[in-house]
Every structure is written in C-alpha cells, then in structure tokens.
C-alpha cells in the first residue's frame, strides 16, 4: 500500500507524450493530437491498499483517447483467487 498520496504533473502538447507515476507503476499516454496546446496533466495515486487515482485537468475532453497503463508488481493482484474479478472504473 502507498503510505501517502503521490502526484506527478507533466506539460504535454500536440505532439503527445507520457506521464509516469513510478511509485504506483502507472503510465498515462497522451497520443499525438489529443490536445491542441500545451496542457498540464496531473495524476495522483491515492494512499492506501486500493489502486486509485485522481486525474487532471478536470472537465477536459480530448480529440484522441488517452491510454492508461497499470503494472501489477506492487499490488496484491497475485494474491487474489484465480476467479476474482478485476475491474476498472472512471467517474
């Protein structure tokens, strides 16, 4: 579990880019053309046992879908029963 919230911010422009949150093994990929001007993207991994994030900029829409990549090395994924359901949600 994360002992504290961890936040990373990157300015990403029309050429695209990525934001890595190494403490949580998370990457946000912003493809080319997703934004029309340099934009501050923020990801905060929330402290605790759950894999949970807060994303910014809030209320934004993107011309190309963004991609979220989560590795499982630092989670309890491997301790779950084989038939356990893993799901993701956005709200």
Present the secondary structure layout:
Blueprint: E1 6-12, E2 17-21, E3 26-30, E4 39-45, E5 53-56, E6 67-70
The ordered H/E elements are EEEEEE
**Order of strands, widest sheet:** 1-4-5
Number of helices: 0
Name the helicity range.
Answer: under 10%
Broad shape: elongated
Assembly type of the shown chains?
Answer: single chain
Q: Report low-confidence residues grouped into runs of 5 or more.
A: none
The Rg value, from CA coordinates, equals 14 Å
List how many beta strands DSSP finds. Answer: 6
Straight-line N-to-C gap:
22 Å
Output the structural class. mainly beta
Question: Major β-sheet, in short?
Answer: 3 strands, antiparallel
Percentage beta strand: 35-45%
Mean pLDDT: 90
Can you characterise this structure?
The protein is mostly beta strands and 91 residues long. It is built from no helices and six strands. It has strands at 6-12, 17-21, 26-30, 39-45, 53-56, 67-70. The strands form two sheets. Strands 1-4-5 form a three-stranded antiparallel β-sheet, with no helix packed on it. Strand 2 (17-21) and strand 3 form a beta hairpin. It is elongated, with a radius of gyration of 14 Å. The protein starts with 5 loop residues before the first strand and ends in a 21-residue tail after the last strand. The mean pLDDT is 90.
């Amino acid at each position: 579990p994360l002992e504290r919230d961890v936040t990373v911010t990157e300015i990403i422009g029309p050429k695209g880019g990525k934001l890595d949150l190494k403490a949580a093994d998370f990457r946000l990929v912003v493809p080319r053309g997703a934004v029309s001007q340099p934009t501050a993207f923020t990801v905060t991994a929330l402290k605790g046992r759950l894999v949970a994030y807060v994303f910014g900029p809030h209320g934004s829409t993107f011309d190309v879908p963004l991609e979220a990549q989560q590795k499982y090395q630092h989670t309890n994924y491997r301790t779950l029963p084989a038939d356990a359901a893993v799901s993701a949600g956005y709200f």
